[in-house]
Design brief:
By secondary structure, the chain is of the alpha/beta class. Helix content is 42%, strand content 18%.
């Protein structure tokens, strides 16, 4: 892995508050060794003290952390919440968080919505969103990453394809990419495109880390990105193709609902690590590992 490009390394797992005690127990016993880094939503931990704060500190003192935000609402018509951005910056500094990412969506106007909505794929939206990302980066004094988002209806006022819009925002904002492998699969099914061809058009140099997750099949042609199920084989295949095309990058397992026992989650974390091992090293070394 390119240490200058990637803020963390290896296979990661999201830290959820309902799993704190179970994860602390197995961390102290050494059974959490499969996990190389962790991720939290800063909104869930900013200004959290007391017992939860002390438990959280035990993890941040031992593991590298990244943050994946929920409410920056980078595409919102409302002004950027700069006070919130500053709160995030203080949280990142306090806990030594290695990187901050957000969704390339919006979730607010006058008030917060309970969904992450797609930004229109237009040139005007590219300029608008890129300017807001640059402002957030200026406040934080660091580059942030945007995640390719899932969406379920055709983008309103569409002037360009999803991949064109995503690449244009990344380029104009000069920000990183949080590559969500499951979202590529979800959108490929929902909007009828080739996921691997989409993947290959992403800018390799902007990838900072990746997510992999499960989803819910609402219908044959409609998948909902729930993070509430095991990762399926076609999504693992896209991750394998991503490592083949770009080389190995840090990858984190997301599981937000229907969370199973840690033993089950760690099986998927180990599968990430095993997939990474297959693509480590030179082409000759890769062939040897596969054999």
């Amino acid at each position: 892995m390119n240490e200058q490009q990637y803020p963390v390394s290896g296979a990661g797992l999201g830290l959820r508050r309902e799993k704190l005690d179970e994860m602390l127990d197995i961390m102290h016993s050494g059974e959490l060794s499969a996990v190389d880094f962790m991720e939290v939503a800063p909104e869930n931990w900013i200004n959290v003290g007391g017992t939860f704060g002390k438990k959280f500190r035990q993890f941040t003192e031992k593991y590298d952390f990244v943050c994946h935000g929920l409410s920056l609402s980078i595409g919102s018509p409302a002004p950027l919440d700069e006070d919130f951005v500053r709160d995030v910056g203080e949280f990142l500094s306090t806990h030594g968080i290695k990187h901050y990412s957000e969704h390339l969506t919006y979730c607010s106007d006058d008030g917060h919505l309970y969904d992450l909505l797609p930004i229109p794929f237009t040139e005007e939206a590219v300029h608008y969103v890129a300017e807001r990302i640059r402002r957030a980066q200026d406040i934080l004094q660091q580059q942030i990453s945007m995640e390719n988002a899932s969406y379920y209806t055709p983008a309103p006022g569409k002037e360009m394809e999803e991949i064109e819009f995503l690449n244009a925002v990344l380029d104009e904002a000069d920000c990183g990419l949080l590559l969500d492998v499951n979202n590529i699969y979800v959108n490929a099914v929902n909007h009828n495109y080739d996921p691997v061809e989409f993947l290959k058009q992403l800018p390799a140099e902007r990838i900072r880390y990746a997510h992999i997750a499960g989803h819910y099949n609402e219908a044959d042609d409609l998948i909902v990105d729930t993070h509430g199920a095991d990762v399926i084989d076609p999504v693992w295949h896209i991750l394998d193709k991503a490592y083949e095309h770009f080389g190995v990058f840090p990858t984190l397992l997301e599981r937000d609902f229907n969370i199973p026992a840690m033993s089950e989650l760690l099986k998927e974390v180990r599968q990430i690590a095993d997939t990474q091992k297959r693509w480590q090293g030179s082409p000759a070394e890769r062939v040897k590992v596969k054999a």
